Amino acid sequence: MANDGARAPQDDGRSAQPGLRKSLGVVDGVVIAASSIAATSSVGIGLGLTAGVVGLHLPAVALLAFLPVLGIASGYARLNRVEPNAGNAYTWVGGILNPWLGFLTGWVNLVGGIVFMAYTTTVTGSALLQLLGEAGLHGLAGLTLDPDSTAQTTLVGLLVLLAATLVAVRGVGLAARLQKYLLVFEYLVLLGFCGYGLFAGDQPFSLSWYDPFAIPSLSALAQGMVLMVFCYWGFETVFSVGEEVRHPRDASRAGTLALVSVLAVFLLAGTAFQRVLPMDELVDNGAQGLTWFGHRLAQQPLAALPLIALTFSAVASLQAAVIPAARGNFAMGRDRTLGPVWTRLHPRYGTPAAGTVLVAGIAAAVALLCLAIPTVTDLIGAAVNSIGIVVALYYALTGVAAAVRFRHLLREAPAQALRAVVAPLAGAVVLLTLGGYLAWTFWSSADHFELSADNGWFQLLGPVLMIGTGLLAAGWARWVRKSPYFTTGRGTDADAADLTPAPAA
Predict the structure, then answer these.
(1) Cα separation of 42 and 384, whole Å?
(2) pLDDT tens by residue, 212-254
(3) Which of 211, 209, 203, 219 is nearest to 47 (CA)?
(4) 8 Å CB contact between 128 and 122
(5) Is residue 283 part of a domain?
(6) I want to staple 316 with a disulfide (CB 3.0 to 4.6 A). Which of 7, 35, 335, 496 is the partner?
(7) Would you list the DSSP string of 148-176?
């Protein structure tokens, strides 16, 4: 592993696998990563949830959570430079650490993404119903429209998921162009309102907001950081399209730029929200926090702008979530750890069209199952905590893989080792500690199972199911599909496929 270059293509019968088109640059990558992180949605929804845990310390926990994620991002960037792959962490962890861990990394990323799409479908529907309410439409055909009704919001959101899927089938270039316009509008509105809120708010400012030692308890710190890690989740989407980016360095730059810009937004928004909203209002409004923030700062029609930005953000993040899930499955399909349906490329658009439609269909089915949770706020709380734990797990595995892969730099190039070995490993240790401690607090907080977002055993059910089904699926791939991934410990190289250049614009 002393060689830091890309691996040579393997001649094992897989070189004829279908290839994705190289069509994306740095700006496209930043747009895809930032849309996947969905800063506006995180601000509008996640800040209220996090404030309920850490109190008036949103800026502190946003900065603390950023540090380990930045370390993991450094590992992603270095690994992508030597081996860009649609499977990214699945391929890297499997080849460097262990195929079972690699498959589990890919699986929990896939299932977590599907759960994210399912609840984002509901969030999108909620934002659209809120917009209708702002426009004066509070009922339809005798039915009172309720933006906190899981049933109503899910049905509306499924229509948006269908549209997002059709755009994704057309290609990441089209998706990136659409997301770029949505993203510009979101950021202009968010920065404008939050900047104004810093000066117009009547809540007294305090430097203690930035003091992590003032957070009420260790468990609050752990849960708050996992929630914020979830809010940063998505920067690696740009590495999922690494085989479609013209140069590996472009993907690395895009991921880092997206993360840093989102940190700035979170610090600004966390401070502005606490200047404008008393703590009880920030916590109580939950999924409608950004809407309430806008109403406190402006009159209609300007007060509706944050809600429109939230809607755009939800649509863009739903669009962005479909893309990496389909491409991760594409990589797993060509390794025969998943079925061949995932590797079928559209003859015109060169995208994994069948896999894109299939993963969206699964997400729609999960969204319908989530109707068992009656309110949007409870659904978001349950989903975010579940996904946050598995995100911490697979980020940590990727960080460890990067540290092992580039450990030779500790003696050969100590300065490079800081970013390729030390930072990813430190981030991995922090995230494993946080995820493990949070799982233990959930387990110890209840003595029975109950279908409730406040029940610790229910909150653990998601991660347990994701990991358990991953082990079963890995066993099927290893002994039934007889995937060479488990015997060679290596996924198919991106270079082994005939990457077809995109036609000139």
Answers:
(1) 11
(2) 888 888 888 988 898 898 889 888 877 876 666 666 677 778 8
(3) 209
(4) no
(5) yes
(6) 35
(7) TBHHHHHHHHHHHHHHHHHHHHH-HHHHH
**How many domains are contained in the chain?**
1
Encode pLDDT of 450-490 as tens digits.
Answer: 877 778 888 888 899 999 999 999 999 999 999 999 987 66
Return the structure tokens found at 504.
Answer: 């000139």
Q: Give the DSSP letter of residue 313.
A: H
* 365: amino acid identity, one letter: A
- What gap in Å lies between CA 240 and CA 363, rounded to an integer? 19
Using DSSP's 3-state secondary structure scheme, residue 197 falls into helix
* Total length of the chain: 505
Contacts of 503 (CB under 8 A, 6+ apart): none
| 501 domain residue, yes or no | no
Distance CA 291, CA 197 (A): 14
- Greatest CA separation for the chain: 72
- Does residue 497 have a pLDDT over 70? no
Tokens at 338, concatenated: 């998943």
- Domain range for 313 is 26-489
> How many helices and strands in the chain, by DSSP H and E?
21, 2
Answer yes or no: is 379 within a domain.
Answer: yes
Q: What are the residues facing 144 on neighbouring strands? A: 139
> Is residue 251 domain-resident?
yes
Share of the chain above pLDDT 70, in %: 84
- Check residue 58 and give its pLDDT: 92
Instruction: Using alpha carbons, select from 269, 299, 292, 135 the residue that is nearest to residue 192.
Output: 269
Structure tokens at 440: 């233990």
Rg for the chain, CA atoms, rounded: 22
Q: Where are any strands of DSSP class E within 383-426?
A: none
Written as one letter, the residue type at 246 is R
CATH classification of the domain holding 160: 1.20.1740.10
The answer to whether 272 and 195 have CB atoms below 8 angstroms apart is: yes
Angle, CA of 415, 418 and 421, to the nearest 5°: 125
Give the tokens for residue 39. 């800063």
Residue (of 140, 127, 241, 236) closest to 182 by Cα position: 127
